[in-house]
Design brief:
This protein is mainly α. It has a single domain, classed as MFS general substrate transporter like domains (Growth Hormone, Chain: A, Up-down Bundle), CATH 1.20.1250. It is built from 14 helices and no strands.
């Protein structure tokens, strides 16, 4: 390989690497709260109680949901690059401020503002990477990018095993790394070519033909030029039979993120209440997210080979089975960790496959809005999950009833994706 060829290859890798790192930072900064909640409650740091922890977790996710809802039109109008850079800058600054919060009130405010940017960064990155990927197969591209989230979650879970007593340090680490990444994003992240092409077509009074990805052949019919041009933003998500697709993926995203955030926020506390050592419960959070990374790689490969929808359906059902299994008391720590690992394989990648499905179906003019709204509606589930689970924890019944609840939610996620029609056209044919 010549030097010029190697240089071009390195240049083309930068967008994928940077999107992965941005999503990894999101995973680190979102999961850090769940990792330190047991320590914050146990020590009463800066006034933390179980009720205060529930409020902080809820308000953090409210911010995440609002950020996801707001970012779609911004991404589709001003571009993916600027959105990613600004989001990383904002959530890094406010995550760093959390480390120095003197009381629960300011801690909550800082987490809420950080959540706004955290919620916006992931749809921006997924819209970018689905367009950067030239193969037309969004399953692997999406799931590999989302392994970054769980790599970040694994990193904070591992750090928390050793440093949960110093929660200030964990928040500061996430903020500082994010700030260091901003100049690199500015330097090495170009704007999405698909976005630039769509903007040029729009300026010329034309519209991109919204053909679905080849991996989803037969799932969605092409959207006509005129209809896509006339229906952009939120309205573009309800053109013809796309309305049923949108409803289905919103409901599936709601159920999927309820599972993801309910588990990541409260699993250590639930397992501690079940009688396991706090250090063991933190190890379970680590194992859960390792399973998630493995599941994402496997799910992306299978989705591109067999179609995204059938794999989503299979993943939700298997998630339900293994979530229910976690309600069974286990005397063997090894067996328990194996069960947690397998649960992580299915729970987290089921949700990400919904995003891959969205990326494959919607055209560039509305792709950011489609991903942003799927994420935003999902964040309502992300808010509800920790809130309900926190209520169960406060009542002392999170184990085993929390796992029964999660299993039912996974079945509902399956039902939501099952209603998505096999063929869609903007004209509703």
């Amino acid at each position: 390989m010549s030097a010029s060829t190697a240089a071009r290859a390195a240049t083309t890798r930068w967008p994928a690497v940077l999107c992965w790192l941005a999503v990894a930072l999101e995973g680190f900064d979102l999961v850090v709260l769940g990792a330190v909640i047991p320590e914050l409650i146990a020590t009463g740091a800066i006034g933390f109680t179980p009720e205060a922890a529930t409020l902080v977790a809820t308000m953090s996710l409210v911010g995440v949901g609002l950020g996801a809802a707001a970012v779609g039109p911004v991404v589709d109008r001003f571009g993916r690059r600027w959105s990613i850079i600004i989001c990383v800058l904002v959530f890094s600054i406010f995550t760093l401020l959390v480390a120095f919060a003197p009381n629960v009130a300011l801690f909550t405010i800082f987490r809420f503002i950080a959540g706004l940017a955290l919620g916006a960064v992931m749809p921006s990155c997924l819209a970018y990477i689905s367009e950067y990927n030239k193969s037309g197969k969004t399953g692997k591209a999406t799931t590999l990018t989302m392994t970054g989230y769980h790599a970040g979650a694994v990193a904070i879970s591992l750090l928390a095993v050793f440093y949960s007593h110093n929660w200030h340090l964990l928040f500061a680490a996430g903020g500082i790394v994010g700030l260091l990444m901003v100049p690199l994003l500015w330097w090495k992240l170009p704007e999405s070519q698909a976005f630039l092409d769509a903007q040029a077509a729009k300026a010329a009074g034309q519209a991109e033909i919204g053909a679905p990805a080849k991996a989803e052949a037969g799932a969605v019919d092409a959207v006509t030029n005129t209809e896509v041009a006339e229906k952009t933003g939120l309205a573009g998500l309800f053109v013809g039979r796309f309305a049923l697709v949108t409803i289905g993926v919103w409901a599936a995203s709601f159920m999927g993120l309820l599972l993801v955030y309910g588990l990541n926020t409260w699993l250590p506390k639930i397992m501690a209440d079940a009688g396991y050592e706090v250090s063991d419960s933190l190890v379970m959070l680590f194992v859960l997210n390792v399973g998630a990374v493995v599941g994402l790689i496997l799910a992306g490969w299978l989705a591109d080979k067999h179609g995204t929808k059938p794999i989503v359906l299979m993943w939700f059902i298997l998630a339900a089975v293994f979530l229910a299994a976690l309600s069974i008391p286990m005397t063997s720590q090894v067996l328990l960790n194996i069960a947690v690992f397998i649960t992580g394989v299915f729970v987290f990648s089921a949700q990400v496959l919904v995003y891959a499905f969205v990326s494959a179906i919607y055209p560039a003019q509305v792709r950011g809005s489609a991903l942003g709204m799927a994420s935003a509606v999902g964040r309502l589930g992300a808010i509800l999950g920790p809130f309900i689970t926190g209520t169960l924890v406060t009542a002392g019944i999170a184990y085993p009833w929390g796992f029964y609840l999660f299993a039912v939610v996974a079945v509902l996620g399956f039902a939501a994706m099952a209603i998505v029609p096999k063929a869609v056209s903007a004209a509703g044919r």
